[in-house]
Give the backbone structure.
Amino acid sequence: MTDNDDILILIARRAGGERLNREEQAALDRAMLADPDLAVLLLDAAEVAAQATDAAGAARQERRASGGRVRMAALVMGLAACFGLGATAGAQLASGLLSGGGLGSSSQPTMQVEFRGVGDALNLKVRSGSREK
Amino acid sequence: MDLDQTDFSALLAGEERAWSRFILNARPVLEAAVHRTFVRQGLKPDAGLFQDAISASLERITADDFALLRRFDPGRGSIRAFLAVVGGSTASNSLRAARRHSGADLSAAEAMAVAPAAGGQKIAEVVPEGLLSDREGLVLRLTFERDMQGPDIARALDISENTVRVLKARALKKLRDAGLRPDGTFPDDHNGGHDTTSATTDDRPVGDRP
């Protein structure tokens, strides 16, 4: 394991937080002894990778939260229309959900909306409670 | 879809759609790595050099039938760390190549950043061969040539900070015991009777040199 590409792969594994076996670490030590800039590269790469991972995690979470809010807003609009609240009231309620972080926001109590068919009508049940920590 | 869902078999098969998605997702990581390398070397990211380094990083990953990418095992490492290493390494190479060309558009700040390394004495040139172990020599080089702190050295070498302190203290003791003088030279009995600062042909004391 001595060619440049192999050394880059070893650095990438270490920068990703993986531990190397003794032989691999010794090869990396020798490469760094010959070129100390490789140690700087390792530290920089570890930091860039950690930041990129954090950013990707945050983006995923935001996508999930925003998808949940859209689904909830659509449900509320649909229910509001069914129960004759009118499109304006339904839209206001739905836009409040979208802009206010939704019902799933950790700082607000959670609400659970259930609906099921009872004869020709819909039975709407709204439960509210504290979110589990 | 993000980097965690990269389809490596599609990439290695050269599928165009997989590569389009991969480049889209990889670009921010490569940019961050190249930017960091430029800033560390005292450069403002120059638009031309910056984009060249990113393109060169992607070319490096795909060169020789994806040879470098083939060596990366997604099960044993993070694709972001892999991209960051390739980006940082390629940026360093691009800057080295640019410095070799006199017409390179590098700022004065960059020239200052490389000056101490060019003018400074290297540990390897001063220390007699075999006096220090590889790890002791490496700790000294990272400390004195790259100005790295104990915690950073520990992270780079995957050892504890305490081990770094021990290695450094042991190395310095060996150098003192061997008679290292303040001007970075050893008595004549080392290295077959020659002064170990063989790279320096000037015999005048350090303070008298230009």
Summary: Residues 120-208 of chain B form a domain with the Arc Repressor Mutant, subunit A fold (CATH 1.10.10.10). Chain B touches chain A through 43 residues (CB under 8 Å). DSSP finds nine helices and no strands in chain B. Residues 16-40 of chain B form the longest helix (25 residues).
